[in-house]
Amino acid sequence: MRVLVVEDEKRLAETLQWGLEADGYAVDLAHDGEEGLEFAQSHPYQVIVLDIMLPRLNGYRVCAALRERGVTTPILMLTAKNGEYDEAEALDTGADDFLSKPFSYVVLTARLRALTRRGAAGASALLTSGDLVLDPAKRTCRRAGRPVTLTTKEFAVLECLLRYEGRVVTKHEILEQVWDLAYQGGPNIVEVYVSALRRKVDAPFGRRSIATVRGAGYRLVADE
Q1: Is the pLDDT of residue 197 over 50?
Q2: Which residues does 104 contact at the CB level (< 8 Å), separation at least 6?
Q3: DSSP state at residue 202
Q4: Cα angle for residues 39, 40, 41 (degrees, 5° grid)
Q5: What are residue 72's DSSP bridge partners?
Q6: Which residues fall within 8 angstroms of residue 174, CB to CB, at 6 or more apart?
Q7: CB within 8 A of 210, min separation 6: which ones?
Q8: Which of 80, 104, 118, 171 could make a disulfide contact with 190, Cβ separation 3.0–4.6 Å?
Q9: Residue 91 confidence (pLDDT)
Q10: Strand, coil or helix: what is 51?
Q11: Strands (E), the chain
């Protein structure tokens, strides 16, 4: 899951980035409202964590601008303020949830998971293809009823392929979904993780569900 954190307190932003990345998220940071607005419009995020008190453009205006421009990504607003009017204004400008500082990291991540479930717009919480089952909320993978242990990045790549089951997903699309903007390497890193997935979710079960589409990318199909 790719997350944008728009927060001008750099220590807090970096702490959130460290924690979220340890939990398996790909995280981009923006430290002012204009930068956050640009990032949110230019890259695919599953959720945005948006501070209200930002330089250059405050969180209310960023949120309103995104909604006016058709960006429907779930937004969780953060603020040092506390009061029903601030919360009401955040929700009225298009935010999906509101959390006052100081906040519990455990609560933050629980709310992010809730927002992404809502963002799935009725889709099943489980991602399945044949006997391959991925549970993004519990971060578990099973094939033919047996658990499969995956690293954080392997899980994220497989989740991306499952969400687009049956269609070709390019290396660049996978990079956009799984790696953050700080990644400086080339797209061939995707090959490394696809190969690892084949060794874990295909080969032990006699499956060939992750196909290479030469010159295009990868396609995941049910293979029983």
Answers
A1: yes
A2: none
A3: I
A4: 90
A5: none
A6: 157, 160, 161, 190, 217, 218
A7: 161, 194, 197, 198, 201, 202, 218, 219, 220
A8: 171
A9: 84
A10: strand
A11: 2-6, 26-30, 47-51, 75-79, 97-100, 127-129, 132-135, 140-143, 146-147, 210-213, 217-220
Confidence of residue 98 (pLDDT cuts 50, 70, 90): confident
Which is nearest to 50 in space by CA: 11, 134, 123, 108?
Answer: 108
Instruction: Give the H/E segment covering residue 163.
Output: helix 152-163
Summarised one tens digit per residue, pLDDT across range 18-32 is 999 888 888 999 999
Query: Measuring CA to CA, how many Å separate 73 from each of 9, 31, 61, 170?
Result: 23, 19, 15, 22
Contacts of 19 (CB under 8 A, 6+ apart): 105, 109
Tell me the C-alpha distance between 197 and 154, whole Å: 7
Q: What is the pLDDT of residue 121?
A: 46
Q: For residues 150 and 120, what is the distance between their CA atoms, to the nearest angstrom?
A: 23
First to last CA, the chain: 27
83: pLDDT confidence band, cut at 50, 70 and 90?
Answer: low
CA 174 – CA 191 distance, rounded (Å):
11
Average the pLDDT over each of 71-85, 161-175, 180-194 and give the range with the smallest value: 71-85
The two three-digit tokens of residue 29, written as one number = 């940071």
Contact call for residues 16 and 27 (beta carbons, < 8 A)? yes
Give 76's strand partners.
49, 97
Based on the number of CB atoms within 10 Å of its own CB, is 101 exposed (0-12), middle (13-18) or buried (19 or more)?
Answer: middle
